Amino acid sequence: GVSCTATMVAVLARKLELTRAEKHVHNFMMDTQLTKRLKNAAANVLRETWLIYKYTKLAKHVNVSRVLAHQRKFLQAIHSLRKVKLDQRKLTDNVNAVSDVARLQSSVYDIVSQMLSNQTVLESKFYDLDARLLALQAIDRAI
User: Fold this and answer.
1) What's the whole-model pTM score?
2) Most buried among 1, 19, 84, 91, by the most CB within 10 A?
């Protein structure tokens, strides 16, 4: 029961995992959507700022309920603008993490291949040293 469920979850997680190209497309689409939301949120902040100014400074009689409503909308617009900026930062961090993993994988591969070549060089030097030592032992026995 438990092992069957664990296997099924592992298989489903593997199937739902995105490929590298799909991740890039997803990140691009999310960036486009967040940019659109950022523009709308900034426009809402400007609009509500203008309406507050209009109903407080340009009006002959200040309608307090209308000003309070626009102040509320202004604060909501600021909150949504901050949330969109936070979401953009999270997406940027996520994109950087994906590219960092690829870069890290590449550098690890380079280091491992360099270590392998160094190991083969050291092995050949040890075999050469061993052969010389055996030759010296043979000469010592002959004397």
Assistant:
1) 0.57
2) 84
What are the φ/ψ torsions at residue 105 (nearest 5 degrees)? -60, -40
Q: What residue spans define the domains of the chain?
A: 19-118
For tokens 């991740």, the residue is 23
pLDDT tens digits for range 25-58: 888 899 999 999 999 999 999 999 999 999 999 9
**What are the residue ranges of helices labelled H in 1-143?**
2-16, 20-53, 64-142
The SS3 of residue 63 is: coil
Longest dimension (CA), the chain: 121
For residue 48, the model assigns a pLDDT of: 97
Distance CA 47, CA 44 (A): 5
For the residues of 6-41, what is the DSSP string, one character each?
A: HHHHHHHHHHHSPPHHHHHHHHHHHHHHHHHHHHHH
Q: Which residues of the chain have pLDDT under 50?
A: none
Other C-beta atoms within 10 Å of 121: how many? 10
CATH fold of 19-118 reads: Helix Hairpins (1.10.287)
